[in-house]
């Protein structure tokens, strides 16, 4: 049995249907089952995926308890949980790692087959621990972090140092880590190489940080928002391109900064379909490698096959290729040791009650990350 058998009533941000307004509701949170923990959320943050989830991505199931980035403290544990306890500080993830399945053993991917990315909006047993007025609630991926309490399968959690900065811990639960891992684990950027990053939100800034750590000599940031220049430089960007002021394509502008040949690696971090072709074309013929990270509601991309036929490589990435148990603790330690300027991401804060204000703030040019105060 879990350490508490009582249902908790708390506040949560709920979207009732495709494109509908988000409301704060009193919801019920069940006790954790045997391999689950119930978490009191301490801090959460806003990612573009959270907006996309109200538009039907990654699934179209409502009512939806929102949020997937955050950090919290374990309130109670299921009776088969042995590696975590009440009072532990954790961050939820949406990628598990069993270290035994074919994929985990191969070391070629972070996509575990035992604990896969879940697009059902439910727990691994296809039920929910959340309800509102007797109606089952879905969540975006493995949990719903914009709720005062939430239940998470223990295989989708990482225990972190209790003194970690809560906002920064929230950032590394998805956005920043996704970008950092894409350069580190997915592309395996080589020292002395050249990199182009399309979109300088938290993910793109994470790519820049990862590319710098890997020793890239030229890191080109591409964004129409001039305010992102300073943010990119803080993480290690060496050159900045604002394509809105030029008649040339962004790929041509990247080539001009890389000897006319293109970069060794490019990273598409926006999810804008047309930019995927641009990011591929910005890489070198024969050897260029593009990592597709961004995603959104529109995921059907008209693709230029010629760009690939000339020897370039396009690879998709989920959570930056990071493994929850093997890799994410390294990023958490770097966060704890202040090896990243994560304060550059923290631009706004709102209480959970003002969650709709957060969506409006996200549209402002000076916004990188909005912290949700629980």
From TrEMBL:
Catalytic class of the enzyme: oxidoreductase
Quaternary organization: Homodimer.
One GO MF term: zinc ion binding
Residues covered by the Alcohol dehydrogenase-like C-terminal domain: 202-321
SUPFAM superfamilies attached to this UniProt entry: GroES-like (SSF50129), NAD(P)-binding Rossmann-fold domains (SSF51735)
Start and end residues of each Alcohol dehydrogenase-like N-terminal domain: 34-160
Organism: Medicago truncatula (Barrel medic)
Name of the protein this chain belongs to: Putative alcohol dehydrogenase
Family: Belongs to the zinc-containing alcohol dehydrogenase family. Class-IV subfamily.
Cofactor(s), names only, from the UniProt record: Zn(2+)
Entry-linked InterPro entries: ADH-like_C (IPR013149), ADH-like_N (IPR013154), ADH_Zn_CS (IPR002328), GroES-like_sf (IPR011032), NAD(P)-bd_dom_sf (IPR036291)
Gene that specifies this protein: 11432074
Catalytic activity, EC: 1.1.1.1
Taxonomy of the source species: Eukaryota, Viridiplantae, Streptophyta, Embryophyta, Tracheophyta
GO biological process per UniProt: formaldehyde catabolic process
């Amino acid at each position: 049995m879990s350490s508490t058998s009582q249902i908790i009533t708390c506040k949560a941000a709920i979207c009732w249907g495709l494109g509908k307004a988000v409301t704060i509701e009193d919801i019920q949170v069940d006790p954790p089952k045997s391999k689950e923990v119930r978490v009191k959320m301490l801090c959460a943050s806003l990612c573009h995926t959270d907006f996309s989830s109200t538009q039907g991505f990654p699934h179209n199931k409502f009512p939806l308890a929102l949020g997937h980035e955050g950090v919290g403290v374990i309130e109670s544990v299921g009776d088969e949980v042995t590696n975590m306890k009440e009072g532990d500080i954790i961050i939820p993830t949406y990628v598990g790692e069993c270290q035994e399945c074919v994929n985990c053993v191969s070391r070629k991917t972070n996509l575990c087959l035992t604990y896969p990315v879940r697009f059902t909006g439910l727990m691994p047993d296809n039920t929910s621990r959340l309800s509102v007025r007797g109606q089952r609630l879905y969540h975006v991926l493995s949990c719903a972090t914009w709720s005062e309490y939430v239940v998470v399968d223990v295989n989708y959690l990482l225990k972190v140092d209790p003194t970690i900065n809560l906002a920064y811990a929230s950032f590394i639960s998805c956005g920043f880590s996704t970008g950092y891992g894409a350069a580190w684990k997915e592309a395996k950027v080589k020292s002395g190489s050249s990199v182009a990053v399309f979109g300088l939100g938290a993910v793109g800034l994470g790519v820049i940080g990862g590319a710098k750590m890997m020793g890239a000599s030229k890191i080109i940031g591409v964004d129409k928002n001039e305010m992102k220049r300073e943010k990119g430089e803080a993480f290690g960007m060496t050159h900045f391109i604002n394509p809105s002021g030029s008649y040339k394509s962004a790929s041509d502008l990247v080539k001009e900064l890389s000897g006319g040949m293109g970069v060794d690696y490019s990273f598409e971090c926006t999810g804008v379909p047309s930019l995927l072709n641009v990011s591929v074309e910005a890489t070198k013929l024969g050897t260029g490698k593009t990592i597709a990270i961004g995603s959104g509601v529109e995921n059907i991309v008209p693709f230029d096959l010629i760009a690939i036929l000339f020897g370039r490589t396009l690879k998709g990435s989920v959570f930056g290729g990071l493994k929850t148990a093997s890799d994410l603790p390294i990023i958490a330690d770097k966060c704890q040791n202040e090896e990243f300027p994560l304060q550059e991401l923290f631009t706004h804060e709102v209480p959970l009650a003002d969650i709709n204000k957060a969506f409006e703030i996200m549209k402002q040019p000076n916004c990188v990350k909005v912290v949700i105060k629980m």
